[in-house]
Amino acid sequence: MQQEFVQEVKNTVTELLNGVHTAIPGKIVKYYPDKCEAEILPFCKFKKPNGEFIDYPQLNHIPILFPQSMGQDCTMVYPINPGDECLILAQEQTLDTWRGGGSESNNDLRFDLTNAVAIMGMFAKPQPLAQEAQDEDKIIIQKNDHRIHIKPDELMVRYSPANFILLNPTGMTIKTQILNIAADMINTVSATTITEAAGVSITETAPAINLNP
Hints:
Elements: H1 2-17, E1 23-32, E2 37-42, E3 45-47, E4 53-55, E5 59-65, E6 68-69, E7 74-75, E8 85-91, H2 96-99, E9 112-120, H3 129-136, E10 139-143, E11 146-151, E12 154-160, E13 163-168, E14 171-175, E15 188-189, E16 193-197, E17 200-203, E18 209-210
Parallel strand pairs: 5-9
Antiparallel strand pairs: 1-2, 1-8, 2-5, 3-4, 6-7, 8-9, 10-11, 11-12, 12-13, 13-14, 15-18, 16-17
């Protein structure tokens, strides 16, 4: 009798916990940049009381979280495409009050996926650049072939592997296939050293090099 009671309690608790959600991976179905919201399909499956597994339904109007502060004057945003993966976080309470700017809500759903937000960047495959960043102690910002590398004593802005600007305590290095600077925009460049400009090594001894003689 006691064993049956204990099992019944376990079944009740399990059933209650099935309705409590925390965090699960998801995939972007459609993104609305003007609202910073997305339609997202959770990757996981839901187990019914009879043991059957079914897919989670698609989630709509899910806020996307971007790094930002200073009243949104300081931020980093980037494109989001269908198929991108993310982390869905169910909120402890309904988001209605937050969305409404402080107005009260009669919705008392807790830890429900309809009150979730999403953080981009959670992919099943590891990020290949993570090893490079760790080994060389640097921050990498990348968009296709374009990169910015930030190290404690070095900054590199790279348009492509053959075109980049490198700044460090020893000076500035410019490597480019074609050096094309508008005369009405820049007349001189103050630097200690410029190397491999247009494929030619140039060392400056004067305070500035005139790029438009």
